Amino acid sequence: MKVLVAAHNHPSLHPGGTEIFAHDLFRAYQRAGCDALFLGATNHIHREARPGTSFQSIGTTGDEILLWSGHFDRFFMSQVDLYGIVPDIVELLRDFRPDVVHLHHLLLLGAEFPHIVRRTLPDCRIVMTLHDYYPICHHDGLMVRTTNKELCYGASPDRCHSCFKEIALDKFVLRERHLKSLLSTVDSFVSPSAFLKQRYVDWGLSEHLISVIPNGQPERAPVKPSETARPKPVFGYFGNLNPWKGTTVLLEAAKQLISEGLDFELRVHGAAPFQSETFIADIDRLFAETYPFVQRRGAYRREDIGKLIATVDCAIMPSIWWENAPLVIQEAQGLNCPVITSNIGGMAEAIEDEANGLTVTPNDPMALASAIRRIAEDGDLRQQLSSRARHPDTIATSAAKYLDLIGTLRSDRVAAA
Fold it and tell me: What are the sequence ranges of the domains in the chain?
């Protein structure tokens, strides 16, 4: 079976959760016997254009390429360069002739991508994994209102227009129709969480077209936690630093605990790329005010995350948006590390309060501080939460589930014929 895996970037250029999982699954497909090709779209932020071709090489194995997409309409999620990129995509499809196209995002690739596949290869099966809410929400797919960081429970042209007053209401009507029309060519959707599936059902996708398959993790050599007794409880944050990840909420909680006299250490692993000057100034101030209790460790390599998690007693993920299936929670649970996280979205599916971690109200520094204190002061609780960790599926298991789904689609096509 030939499989084309397409994502909106490459993990070596932008190591986000979607890109990492898409690439892991691509390799798992190959190990399962598939002839797989990885296509990652990028733009000037990570690569310069190379005149004469839309494609660029990446890696050393010859089975990964980049599509340079410099002309992309983010509102309609549309590929603008119809005379440049689209013919090259068509040529790639005709040359590789995949049996399956597995799409992981519409950004940079364009919402037209499934339609181009269907028009070029009518018998190709198209699967799309829904990783976030971009088709539903123009606010960077966050489903958070543009004022006061209020969580959004459902999109409509009126609500979306109230978030973006400068965009006419009828454009949101057209945006929704445009995206739903183009997505109608997808054979099957997959959601890593039941929560995200329900969001898309509420938006209008057919429930029977969306399967829930959890994201799997690569199998790695076991990481042995340090047996050296720590003089004080150590907490860890892992991931990019930005307002939606709850960075300032975390630092405000730490500041509160310091004022209360709690003896602890918080290690913050991650960088803050592409953030506003205001946000950078806020976290710089908070890091300065919470030092040395809070240690700013900076960016890390993905291959090091296991070792880093093994050095902490508890991981913290205080996101204030509807996270879908955070890799950090999976990584921590795979190492029997309890997690404190927000009680919304896919986070609440992965962590059950007082079972394998603690959940708190999002965007509430006092609630987060209270949970951190509980973990810090109660060693028995830490042990109980650790013993009930829920290990994620392996990436091989995820690949097998996807291939089973693809086989069903083939049966459906044969039956329909």
Answer: 2-216+394-416, 234-387
